[in-house]
Structure formats: C-alpha cells, structure tokens
Amino acid sequence: xxxxxxxxxxxxxxxxxxxxxxxAPGKRPVVGVACDAEVREHYLAPDDxxxxxxxxxxxxxxxxxxxxxxxxxxxxxxSEAELAxxxxxxxxxxxxxxxxxxxxxxxxxxxxxxxVGELEGDRFAGRVDVDAADxxxxxxxxTTHGSSYPVAEWALALMVLGMRDVGRWKRRTELxxxxxxxxxxxxxxWRLVELVRPYGVEVLVxxxxxxxxxxxALGVTFAPLDAVLAGTDVVVCLAPxxxxxxxxxxxxxxxxxAPGTVFVNVSRGAIVDSVxxxxxxxRGDVVACLDVHDPEPVPPDAExxxxxxxxxxxxxxxTTVESRTRFFGLMVEEIERLxxxxxxxxxxxxxxxxxxxxxxxxxxxx
Length: 366
What we know:
Blueprint: E1 30-35, H1 37-42, H2 46-53, E2 57-62, H3 77-87, E3 92-95, H4 104-108, E4 115-118, H5 130-135, E5 139-142, H6 148-164, E6 179-183, H7 187-196, E7 202-206, H8 213-218, E8 221-222, H9 225-230, E9 234-237, H10 251-254, E10 262-265, H11 274-282, E11 287-290, E12 310-312, H12 321-340, H13 350-356
Parallel strand pairs: 1-2, 1-3, 3-4, 4-5, 6-7, 6-9, 7-8, 9-10, 10-11, 11-12
C-alpha cells in the first residue's frame, strides 16, 4: 500500500474562494478522500469533483487492498497511523471502501477537522467512531442512503410483478387503488411513497422510531405492525436489520397476511424467519418477491426456488451505475453546506447509531 499523504494523489486546486465554514478566514479549505483505487475511478464523477475543487483543495490517500464492504475494516495499526497522518491539516475527511476506521487516534491528529463523511458501505458497520467524533466536536455525515433511489425503484417493480403474478395467468391484479403496507420508514420508504403516489394507493406504515409528524407531511398513516400485515394488499419490508428487528416477521406475523397479499423484501433477509416464510409460502395463497435472503445467496437446491408463487432476485436492488456516483454527489452537497456555514443534512448521530445497534427505545432517547 502506498503511503497516504498530501502527495499520495494529486492535490487538485480550484479557483480561490473565501470559505464560509470551517477553514480559517483567507484559507482555502482542504478535503481529503481516503479510499481504494476502484472508488476513486468509479465513484468520483468529474462534475462532482469540479464542484468540490471549486471550493476546496482535494487530496487523495490510496488505501487499495483493505476493501471491506460487509463489515467494519479490521483493526490495522499501521493503516490507522497512515490515516491519522493524512488527516492532519484537513477540514473535511471522506472515507470509503479500503479506508481504515476513523478512530480517536485519527481525530486527535486532526485538530482542524470539522467533518468526517462515510461515502458508501454497510450502514451498520460504519467506518467512523461516532462517539469519539462527538467528543472532538466533529460532525459525521453518512451518505450511504444514496442507494435508496434504485432500491425504491426495484421495490416498486417487485410490487407490480407480484400483483401481476408474473409467470402465471390466472391471478392478475393492479397496484392502482390498493392498500400498501411499509415496514420501516427511512430513506427508501420516503422515496417509495413518492413513486407509488400516482397509483392512488393508501399507505400504512409501521416504524416505532419514526417521528409522527412525518405521517401528515408524506400523506401516510402510521399503524401497528399487525394492522400493516393484515390490512394491506402488498407489504414491503424496508426495516434495517438490527438486534431488535432480526426475526421480526415469524410464523405468527406471516400468518396475518391475507390470501392474495404480495410480500416484498428489499431490506435484509434475516428480518424474516426463513423457515416460517417457507411454510407460509407453501400454502400458495400469497406471493413473495424477494431481493434479500437468509441465507444469502440462496442455495441452489433450496425449496423456495421451485415455488411458483415466489420471484427471487440476487440482492441487486441497490446496484446501479448511477448509485455509485450518487454517493459522492451527495457528499459534495454536504461539504458545500459545511463550508457555507450551514449544518449538513445526513448527520450520523449517537441516536442514529443507537437505533442501528438496537439499543434505542422506540420513540425515545437511547
């Protein structure tokens, strides 16, 4: 691995500009991007880079070889030291695949750091020590929700596929005018609500952590989980996988689905009890359209593959060309807000981390 420093990638300079945020008056802010070669090549679109270099100098640190997508980067003292060295003198640090975890040691080495942003990765195995960042007064921004756009699109596609019962001709119904149930109400759900609005559907939502005022703002109705499962024509699972949601939908819950219901899962397979789901699907009176599975990938000889009322896709809902560059585009917007002196929108707070870790009480403080 090359030594990450101010020269481990080109320093890209834009036009001089008086920053309005974290940098000292008269000093151009400096943004560091720590990632592997694939991220630098495929995630950083020229237009977004141009926007960033117009307001800041940009430095790169190459951490190729440490890619970790589904888990926290493994502890590596040498890489941590290199990231700490790179972070010194930065006003904002962006990390992505390849970069080691932003620890207290890294934060201590960068007294001028105002923001750390995680570009993309597993939202529940973050690359930033949020507690340490909070102690150092460093904002943490998470733009991993950039994939919510294609996931919402695919959820809609699966809803329509299920209603039309693609592959069979006897039971075909429309989505128009139906009742839609959403389990979980985060970024994906918000976008899905916008996508289904033209269909004239009624939307019921179960999410014990979501602010109640969102119901009126987005035109949905919050309801208990049982009501969402039993009282809608299509149920979409969008909840994050946490200790509280693992196995959330078991035999009792799946038994509440009325005959003819379409069940869609684009979140995580382990939220649903796989044995109970298979038993419910064997009855043949509901349709399941699943992008996520437990285990994953689905074994070649798994019974669920042969069921005529099941449509499977291989966890591809969030995988698009556009979603890769969107992560960085959203991050540039957050950095622009920072340097204008306004608060970034996608803040990763202790409360959010507590919810992801299953430690927060629904509707209350962690």
